[in-house]
Structures are given as C-alpha cells and as structure tokens.
Design goal:
The chain has 365 residues and is an alpha/beta fold. Helices cover 35% and strands 23% of the residues. The protein starts with a strand and ends in a 16-residue tail after the last strand. The structure holds nicotinamide-adenine-dinucleotide. Nicotinamide-adenine-dinucleotide binds next to loops.
Length: 365
C-alpha cells in the first residue's frame, strides 16, 4: 500500500482524489496540503466520503508535511509555475511524484526535475491523462501494430472557450510566470498526443500565436507546423476564444494505410476508423464506431484513474510510467519552441532551450 499526499487543493485536485480512491487497493491518502486550509479540508472530506475509516492530516506547509508524514507518493496540483521547486523538494524527501501538466514552464526546469528524479532514484510522472482515453489507447495499439504503414501527417485541433470569468477566477492563469497561454495550459494535452503518435522526435517548429480577445499576458490562440525526425508533419490549431462555448478537441492521424480521427469535446469519441487490413482484422468502421458514445462530464475525462494505476504498476515492476518526466518534457519543449518561433518570426530547431519568461512583453503593443 503506497501512502499518498496531495499538494495543491484547487480546481483540478478532485481528479487526484478520484485517482487515489479508484486505486484504493494500492494507494491510501494520508495528507492534504494547501496554504488555503479550507480547500485542503474540503479534499479530506471528499476522500473520507469514499474511503472510511481514514486518517488524513491537513497541512498548509508542504515541507512540514513531507517531514512529518513521509509519504511514498506526492501528487502535485499547484499552479504550473510553482511545480519545479515543490517537486524537487518532494523527490529529495524520498517521494515518488505524480505532477500536473505542464510539468514546468522552461526546458531548464524540466531538466532539473528529471535529473532530481534520477539522482533520488524516484519515479516522476506527468498528468497527460488523455493518453489513457479508450479510443486513444486503441489508436496507439493500431499504430504499434504497424497498421498505418508509413505515418504521413497528423493534426490536433483544440477549439475551446476560456472566458473572462475563467481567467478572473485565478489571477495566475494566462501569466508568463505561472501558466503561459492556451497552448501551454489547455492545448498541451493534444500536443502531447500528436507528438506521441508522430514519433516523439520533433525536429523543427514554425508558428504564429496571438492574444486576440482575452485580458491576459499570454496567447489565447496558436497555430503551428511541427516536423518530425521520421518525416511526418504535425499541424496544431489551438484556441481559447471559440464562440460561445467549447466546440471540440480532435486528433487526426493519417498514414499510408490508415486514417483515424478521435474527436468529441476532449478526444474521447472515435469518429473515423479506416484501415487497409480492417476486413482481415474484423474492425471495419461500421463495427467500431459507436453512435451512442457520449462525452465525459468534464473535459478532464477519466484518465487520471488510469494514470495513477499505471504509476503504481511502474513502482511495483520498476518500469517507467507511461508518461514519465522525460516523456512529459516533449510536449513542453514543442510549446516552448512555438513561443520562440512567435518571438523570433523564424522556424525553431529542436532541441531548444526556452522559457515562458522570455515571452514577457510579447503582446504588449
Ligand atoms: N490534467 C488536467 O486536465 C488539468 C486540468 C486543469 C488544471 N491542470 C493543472 O493543474 C494545476 C493546478 O490548476 P488548478 O486549475 O487546479 O489551479 P487552482 O488555482 O485552482 O489550484 C492551485 C492550488 O494550489 C495551491 N497552492 C499554491 N501553492 C501551494 C503550496 N506551496 N503548497 C500547497 N498548495 C499550494 C493554491 O492555494 C490552490 O488552491 C496547474 O498546473 C494546471 O495546469 C491540469
């Protein structure tokens, strides 16, 4: 049984509580921490409603919590710009860490986190939970089985609405120091999926970003073309400005012998499934598509439960988690290269060293 502590009890933290609850055969929550104590108490209650009897300590200072409780696993859901020091402290204190996305806001910080995990001999995972969506796993299995033949191109569209109220709710959102713009916050999941399917080795990025409508520092729209080492090309379209509400998040992957499109509100709905070998395999499109498939209740989907399960399996077997810190850095690096391309007006080669802080003032004209 892995003792677990939650650091950061805001908007997304209910997904971490659900993740521990759904893995209660292997994980037990022992502490929650937030400088806003009421938020921490609320999480304790959420957990205790599902798992009784259970002692959960409440802390406002995570360092005191680490010293007193010595959890096996720390899960981090603080503002993105605060992840790095907290995660390094947790790793140094002997915890394995599950961290919200994006893991950091600069390539240097991501490297420091990965080096700390290595030095401490601890596992680090990043919450790209959409990798565990059922159709995404199905697509990945087809890809790994070689059913696409040569992979040609892919596209991710994130057409969502994050309005004034969303940004006003938490002043850190949309800032270069704590968040980045919609590409770093909302679109990072889709960008992770795109790069995962297109070979995980992005070599060049050309992009335009804009701050069209929102009163934030960072971008609310971005368009990019990403070239991969295997020759495939990825196209990214991400917006927080879609009128009047969230429209779709869609991943399309096209190969020589296969086409797959997964859409819905947040890549949970299979829309196209066409393969040259479909008759032989027995998964022709009419058999696979389910017209009654529904979107999950929130855009966060159901993936945290599976990601936490995968993490525990990684600890038990000694393998890396599916979305390790090294894998989690890949989408971050692409987004930072997009930012750099916007700033310089040129294509950017990867590996690339960049930070959201280098974008300060970009849209101030
Ligand atoms: N995986 C997803 O789909 C998903 C969805 C939303 C947000 N996120 C990510 O989760 C993170 C949090 O986002 P949010 O919307 O929940 O933010 P939020 O502002 O609602 O919550 C952050 C919480 O962290 C607390 N906190 C700050 N410093 C702390 C510290 N030193 N110790 C303990 N707690 C501290 C704050 O008081 C706040 O309660 C961000 O990195 C965000 O990008 C991920």
């Amino acid at each position: 049984m892995y003792t677990t502590a939650l650091i950061g009890c805001g908007r997304i933290s209910f997904k971490h509580i659900e993740g521990v609850v759904s893995n209660s055969d292997t994980m037990r929550l022992i502490a929650v921490c937030d400088p806003v104590l009421d938020r921490a108490r609320e999480k304790r209650e959420e957990y205790q409603k599902c798992c009784t009897p259970s002692d959960v300590s409440v802390y406002e200072d995570y360092r005191k919590m680490l010293a007193a409780c010595k959890p096996d696993i720390a899960t981090i859901a603080t503002e993105s710009g605060k992840h790095t020091p907290i995660i390094i402290d947790c790793l140094d204190a002997g915890c394995h860490v599950i961290c919200e996305k994006p893991m950091a806001l600069s390539t240097k910080d991501a490297d420091a986190m990965n080096e700390s995990a290595k030095r401490a001999g601890k596992k680090l995972a990043v919450c790209f939970q959409n990798r565990f969506n059922r159709p995404v796993q199905k697509l990945r299995a087809a890809l790994e089985a070689g059913r696409f033949g040569r992979i040609l191109h892919g596209m991710v569209q994130i057409r969502w609405n994050r309005n004034h109220t969303y940004y006003a709710e938490a002043p850190w959102r949309g800032t270069w120091a704590m968040d980045g713009g919609t590409l770093m916050n909302q679109c990072t999941h889709g960008i992770d999926l795109l790069q995962w399917m297109l070979g995980e080795e992005a070599v060049r990025v050309q992009a335009k970003t804009r701050r069209f409508l929102r009163s934030i520092e960072a971008e609310d729209f971005g368009a990019a073309i990403v070239e991969f080492k295997n020759g495939s090309v990825g196209i990214i379209e991400g917006s927080a400005d879609i009128y009047p509400t969230n429209l779709n998040e869609t991943l399309s992957i096209f190969g020589e012998k296969g086409s797959v499109v997964i859409g819905g509100l947040a890549v949970n709905k299979l829309e196209v499934w066409r393969f040259a070998d479909a008759d032989r395999i027995g998964d022709t499109e009419d058999r696979v598509l389910n017209p009654y498939e529904k979107d999950p209740p929130t855009v966060y989907g159901f993936g945290h439960d599976a990601l936490f399960k995968d993490f525990v399996e990684a600890l038990d077997t000694g393998r890396e988690p599916l979305v390790s810190g090294e894998k989690g850095k890949k989408a971050l690096e692409i987004i930072l290269a997009i930012y750099k391309s916007q700033k310089t007006g040129h294509a950017v080669d990867l590996p690339c060293d960049f930070s959201t802080m280098e974008m300060v003032g970009e849209f101030n004209t």
